[in-house]
Design brief:
This protein is an alpha/beta fold. The protein is built from 14 helices and 15 strands.
Length: 403
C-alpha cells in the first residue's frame, strides 16, 4: 500500500480538524511549554518554570502504595473514593479549619485538575460565563473553555501602599452579566502569590450570594503562607451550609505527589450522586493503591509538610532579596504559594526574554504571557527547591540582568 504524499496527509489532517468541536479545538496551548521544550535537557540548567518542587515523594508514602500493590489491590474500587481515605481527608480538613467536615463532603479525584473540571461541569456549560481574577493559572481558562463556557478575565493590580496584589471586588461585580454562573477564586494564587484576606473572601461570597453564583475555590496552596499563620483564610471560615461553593484540592503540593495524580473535590453531600456520576463518566475511580498512599500522607505526613513550608519560606527570602538588589526587577511580595511574579524594567517581550534567559543564565522561568490578562509584562519563577539551587539561580539571573 502506497503511503500518501505529504500534501495529501496535510489535507486529510485539515479535514479532520475542521470537524472537531470548537470547545475542543479552542483548548489553548500552554505558554510555559515553549520555554520548557527550548531548555529541556540543557546541562546544569535550573528549572524553575513549572509548579512543583524538586523533592520526591517521601518513602513512607511510596511504601503504602507498594504494600497495596503487593496485596493485589488492582481492581475497580469506590467511585467516590476509599472510605478510609475520605475519612482521613475529613480528619485532616476538620483539624485544619477548626470545624467538623463530614467525610461525605469529599470525593477522591485524579488530581486537582480533574476536581476542577468536574466542579466547572457542575456549575457552567455552553453559553455561560465564568469570572476569573487574572493573572491566573492558565488551566482555569482552559477548563472553562473546554466545558463550552466563556472565561471572563477580571484584571487584578498591585496595591502600591501594601505592596501586594489586590482584587477589586467592585470590578469583579461589574463583570457579572445574566450569563455569569461562577467565580473561580484561587487563594493563595498561582502565579501572583495573592492571598485573600477574610474581608476579601466575605465580599466575594456576598457577591456570589447576591447573584446566585457558584464559587470554585482553589485553595491548594493554603498551607504555604508567610505571615506566621498555619494556613490562609478560607471560605470554610465564613460559609453557610447552603452556599454554592465547590472546593478543589490536591495531594500534589503539600506531600510532593504531583506525578501520582490524586486530589479531591469538596462539596455539600447533597451533590454526592452528581459527583459520583461525573466520576463514572470521566475516570471510573482513582486506583486503590494510590489512595492508600494518600491515607498515609494525611496521617503521617505533617512533619514533611512543615519541612516543605519552612524550606519554601527560606527560598522566598533568598530570591526576593537577590532580585530586588539588582535594581532592575519589580514585584509585589508574594503572601502565599511558592512563586515570584516579577517584571524586568524595560522588558516588553517576556516570551523572548524567557527564552534568552535559558541561554544567558541557564535558568528556566515561565513568561507571564502564559497567565492571561495583566500578566504580559511579568515572569513566573517557582522557588520550591533546595535553597542552594535558588541561591545559584538568583546569582545567575542577577548576572544576566547586569549584562
Amino acid at each position: 500500500m502506497n503511503q500518501p504524499s505529504a500534501e495529501a496527509h496535510a489535507e486529510v489532517g485539515q479535514f479532520l480538524l475542521s470537524a472537531v468541536r470548537p470547545e475542543a479545538a479552542g483548548a489553548p496551548e500552554s505558554g510555559i511549554v515553549e520555554v520548557f521544550n527550548y531548555g529541556r535537557g540543557r546541562q546544569g540548567l535550573i528549572p524553575l518554570w513549572v509548579g512543583e518542587g524538586d523533592m520526591p515523594t517521601p518513602g513512607f508514602i511510596q511504601e503504602a502504595a507498594t504494600r497495596s500493590l503487593a496485596a493485589g489491590e488492582t481492581f475497580y474500587t469506590y467511585q467516590r473514593g476509599l472510605p478510609e481515605l475520605r475519612s482521613a481527608i475529613s480528619t485532616y480538613m476538620s483539624r485544619l479549619y477548626g470545624r467538623p467536615l463530614d467525610a461525605e463532603r469529599f470525593f477522591v479525584t485524579i488530581g486537582g485538575m480533574h476536581a476542577l473540571q468536574m466542579a466547572i461541569r457542575i456549575a457552567a456549560g455552553v453559553g455561560d460565563e465564568a469570572l476569573i481574577p487574572s493573572p491566573a493559572w492558565p488551566n482555569f481558562l482552559g477548563a472553562v473553555g473546554v466545558a463550552g463556557a466563556t472565561p471572563v478575565e477580571v484584571p487584578m493590580a498591585i496595591d502600591p501602599v501594601r505592596n501586594r496584589w489586590s482584587l477589586d471586588v467592585e470590578r469583579l461585580a461589574a463583570a457579572v452579566t445574566p450569563r455569569t454562573k461562577l467565580i473561580i477564586v484561587n487563594s493563595p494564587a498561582n502565579p501572583t502569590g495573592w492571598t485573600a484576606t477574610r474581608e476579601e473572601l466575605e465580599a466575594i461570597l456576598a457577591l456570589a450570594r447576591r447573584h446566585g453564583l457558584w464559587i470554585v475555590a482553589d485553595e491548594i496552596y493554603g498551607r504555604f503562607v508567610f505571615d506566621g499563620a498555619e494556613r490562609a483564610p478560607s471560605f470554610h471560615d465564613i460559609m453557610a451550609e447552603e452556599d454554592r461553593i465547590l472546593f478543589v484540592q490536591t495531594f500534589s503540593k503539600n506531600w510532593a505527589m504531583t506525578g501520582w495524580r490524586i486530589g479531591w473535590l469538596e462539596c455539600h453531600p447533597a451533590l454526592g450522586q452528581v459527583v459520583e456520576n461525573l466520576m463514572q463518566y470521566s475516570c471510573s475511580g482513582v486506583p486503590a493503591f494510590i489512595q492508600r498512599a494518600g491515607v498515609v500522607a494525611l496521617e503521617q505526613g505533617e512533619g514533611f509538610v512543615q519541612h516543605q513550608i519552612e524550606r519554601v519560606r527560606r527560598c522566598r527570602e533568598i530570591i526576593c532579596d537577590a532580585l530586588s538588589g539588582t535594581g532592575k526587577v519589580e514585584f509585589a511580595d508574594p503572601a502565599g504559594a511558592f512563586y515570584l511574579f516579577f517584571s524586568i524594567r524595560g522588558e516588553a517581550d517576556t516570551r523572548r526574554r524567557a527564552l534568552r534567559l535559558v541561554d544567558d543564565a541557564n535558568v528556566g522561568i515561565a513568561p507571564g504571557t502564559a497567565f492571561g490578562a495583566g500578566g504580559e509584562q511579568y515572569f513566573r519563577l517557582c522557588f520550591a527547591r533546595r535553597p542552594e539551587d535558588i541561591q545559584e539561580a538568583a546569582r545567575r539571573l542577577s548576572a544576566a540582568l547586569a549584562g
